[in-house]
């Protein structure tokens, strides 16, 4: 393939099959080793997003992932799709950008644990 007069072979057609898009879903319920308050969880999330670009990858992708993590599932799917993010795990814990950079997001950033305690 490549010349004006070339024809697509069976092997070329197999390579050109578009990749399937993984749908985002909520993370499974999880529990921290020790109970946590909502304010402490918020602080942990803020610290993660503040330092995330230092883990590598593009800041724009981290910003898109943060917006997706804080949105409902339909909007999160639209954000991820429009940013060209490749989802490995449907719960967004592992993603890649189009250049192959890996982005890992801890579960505490994506959902709430089952063992909250009230703020005092």
UniProtKB/TrEMBL annotation:
It holds the Pfam family UBD. InterPro entries: DC-UbP/UBTD2_N, DC-UbP/UBTD2_N_sf, UBTD1/2. Residues 22-119 form the DC-UbP/UBTD2 N-terminal domain. Gene3D superfamilies: Ub domain-containing protein, DC-UbP/UBTD2, N-terminal domain. PANTHER family: UBIQUITIN DOMAIN CONTAINING 1 PROTEIN-RELATED. This is DC-UbP/UBTD2 N-terminal domain-containing protein. It comes from Escallonia herrerae.
